[in-house]
Design goal:
CATH class of one domain: Mainly Beta
Shape: elongated
Number of helices: 9
CATH superfamily of one domain: PDZ domain
Strand content: 15-25%
Largest sheet: 7 strands, antiparallel
CATH architecture of one domain: Roll
Structural class: alpha+beta
Order of helices and strands: HEEHEEHEEHEEEHHHHH
Radius of gyration: 24 Å
Length: about 350
C-alpha cells in the first residue's frame, strides 16, 4: 500500500512540475494564468491569489494550467495568442524543460550520495557487483522471478558454487550448464535469496540463454561541486540514448519489422510496476528510475504529435512558415482527435501490462 501511494504521489508530482514549467514562463512573458489545478475537475477547493485560481480537483490524474487566451483568439496584448511565436514556443517548451531539470537534479543527488557506475570486467574491483539492467519478456529469467536492478552474487550447479564478480564469469557458467537447472543468489534491496533457472539451449536472436542484460557496477560518490556536472552529462547521455532508441523503434515500424528484439511498450500500469521494482531495489534506484522517467517524458513530449507539446511546436512552426496562425478551432479538433488516439493506445497497452503482470 505504501509503495502504491509513493508511486501515485511521484507521478502526480511529475505532472505538477511539468505544468509549473508552462506556468512560470507564461508569467515571465506577462501572460496571465487563469487557473493552476492539481487533479482534474470537478473542483474540490479553490483559492484565487492574484490573477490565478489555485485549485484542488477530484480526479487525481495529474495537473493542468489554463493560460489566458491559449484557446481563444483574444485581442488583449497579454493573451497567449498575441505573443510572438518565439515566446509561445518557449511557454510550450517550459513543461519539457522542467522534466529535464528534474532529471538533472535527481541525477546530481544520486552522484553526490553514491551512484551505481558501470565498469568493465578488466577493472579490478573487489566490491563490484553484477546487476540486471534489462529483462526479455517471457525469458527464463523473467519466469524465474528475476527483476531489473537485481544483483547476482553467486551461481550454483549441484555442489559447484561460484562467487560472481565479473559479467564474463556468469556468462561462462551459464554457457557450461545450458539446459540444466542452476541456482542464482539474488540480492534485492536488503533481501538475499536464491532463484532456480534453466538457461535455454536454443537461444532467440538478440537474446541470451537467460534473457537478461547484465552490467558490472560499483558505487561511486562525487564531491558536491562535481555532482551537478555529472548530473548534466548523464542527462545529456540518457537523452541521446532515448532519442537513438526511439529512432530505431520508428525505423523498424516504418519498415514493417515490428518492435526491435527485447523492446516492449508499457503504459502507466507497466511503469507503475517498474517503479515498484525500483522501490524494492532501494532509494537510489528509485530516484534513478524517476530521473529516467522524467527524461523519457521530456523526449516523448517533444514528438511532433498533436496533443503533445511537440504538436504545439509543430503548429507554431507551420504558422512561422505560412505567416499566419492555423485556425484555433481546426487546431483544437486535430488535438482532440490525437488525444483520443493516445488514450486508446494507452488503454490497449495497459491491458497488455495487466496480462504481463498477472
Amino acid at each position: 500500500m505504501i509503495s502504491i501511494l509513493i508511486i501515485v504521489f511521484t507521478l502526480i508530482a511529475l505532472v505538477i512540475i511539468h505544468e509549473f514549467g508552462h506556468f512560470i514562463i507564461a508569467k515571465k512573458f506577462g501572460v496571465p494564468v487563469e487557473e493552476f489545478g492539481i487533479g482534474y475537475p470537478p473542483r474540490i477547493f479553490g483559492k484565487k491569489m492574484g490573477q490565478t485560481l489555485y485549485s484542488l480537483n477530484l480526479l487525481p490524474f495529474g495537473a493542468f494550467v489554463k493560460i489566458y487566451g491559449e484557446k481563444e483568439g483574444l485581442e488583449d496584448s497579454n493573451s497567449f495568442q498575441r505573443k510572438s511565436i518565439e515566446q509561445r514556443a518557449l511557454i510550450t517548451l517550459g513543461g519539457v524543460l522542467s522534466f529535464w531539470i528534474v532529471g538533472i537534479i535527481l541525477l546530481s543527488i544520486i552522484f553526490a550520495i553514491g551512484a551505481p557506475t558501470a565498469i568493465s570486467d578488466t577493472v579490478e574491483a573487489e566490491d563490484a557487483r553484477i546487476q540486471v539492467i534489462s529483462l526479455v519478456n517471457g525469458s527464463p529469467a523473467e519466469v524465474a522471478g528475476i527483476k531489473i536492478w537485481d544483483i547476482i552474487r553467486n551461481v550454483k550447479y549441484q555442489s559447484l558454487s561460484v562467487k560472481i564478480n565479473k559479467v564474463k564469469e556468469i556468462q561462462e557458467f551459464v554457457e557450461n550448464y545450458k539446459g540444466e537447472e542452476i541456482s542464482l543468489t539474488i540480492e534485492r534491496g536488503k533481501e538475499s535469496f536464491e532463484l532456480d533457472i534453466i538457461p535455454r539451449i536454443e537461444i532467440p536472436e538478440g537474446e541470451g540463454a537467460m534473457g537478461v542484460g547484465l552490467v558490472r557496477t560499483i558505487t561511486r560518490a562525487y564531491p558536491f561541486y562535481l555532482a551537478p556536472l555529472k548530473g548534466i552529462k548523464a542527462c545529456i547521455d540518457l537523452t541521446s540514448q532515448i532519442v537513438n532508441s526511439l529512432g530505431g523503434i520508428f525505423g523498424n515500424l516504418f519498415q514493417g519489422k515490428g518492435l526491435p528484439p527485447g523492446v516492449k511498450l508499457v503504459g502507466p500500469i507497466g511503469v507503475g510496476s517498474l517503479m515498484d521494482e525500483a522501490i524494492e531495489a532501494g532509494p537510489i534506484y528509485y530516484l534513478q528510475f524517476i530521473a529516467i522517467i522524467a527524461i523519457h517524458l521530456a523526449v516523448f513530449n517533444l514528438l511532433p504529435i498533436p496533443a503533445l507539446d511537440g504538436g504545439k511546436l509543430l503548429f507554431l512552426g507551420i504558422e512561422k512558415i505560412k505567416g499566419s496562425p492555423i485556425n484555433i478551432k481546426v487546431e483544437e479538433k486535430i488535438n482532440a482527435l490525437f488525444f483520443i488516439l493516445l488514450i486508446i493506445m494507452i488503454f490497449f497497452v495497459s491491458i497488455k501490462d495487466i496480462i504481463n503482470i498477472f
